[in-house]
Amino acid sequence: MRHAFLDANPPNVLSHKFAATHGETKPTMQAIKPLDISLILTVGCYLDGIRNMEAGMRRHLLPLALCIGLAGCAAAEPDYSGSYVGGDDTALIQLQIVESDGGDIKGSVSVSAPDYEAGDIASTTKAISGVRRGEQFSLVAHAKDWGAPDAPLALEARGKSLILNVPATGQTIELASMDQSQYRLRLAKLADGLNANDVGQLPED
After folding, report:
1. Which CATH architecture has domain 82-194?
2. This model's pTM is above 0.85
């Protein structure tokens, strides 16, 4: 038994019925040819392939975007490398630190104070090392003299400043971020105490 939709030119029953009624041959419906079915299936498979490819790209790009976002968050970790200065009219402390990956700290600490007998500013500098964990610094000022004890330094970051805790006296000294030109101005102000009036206040022999 042969089906009409498999013929290349199947008879159109509706067309013959229309002609018998109205006296003319005008098709009102055309059967889908096998070639048309093949074309529809081909286009459908092509569109499905595009959709699957887009879905696969989204699955691969989402983890990549997440990794980039996490890397950006990790890069936001603060770096406290720089110069920090604090003190009063009797002494100045300058802390210079270089922070590397992982929070390792290297640098130096200097203490400057007026030396009235010498008529100059006396400074002592020691190398420091240690680590930073979050906002807490655990540092050591290394003694210059062989056999002399090292001095521990405990600092805490507060905004753009570092707070130095002095266990021996219980003092806290704020060290503000400061460049070298500003530090020299602070030293010049400290040296103002070495004028004639201040020297005259020293006890006479």
Report:
1. Beta Barrel (2.40)
2. no
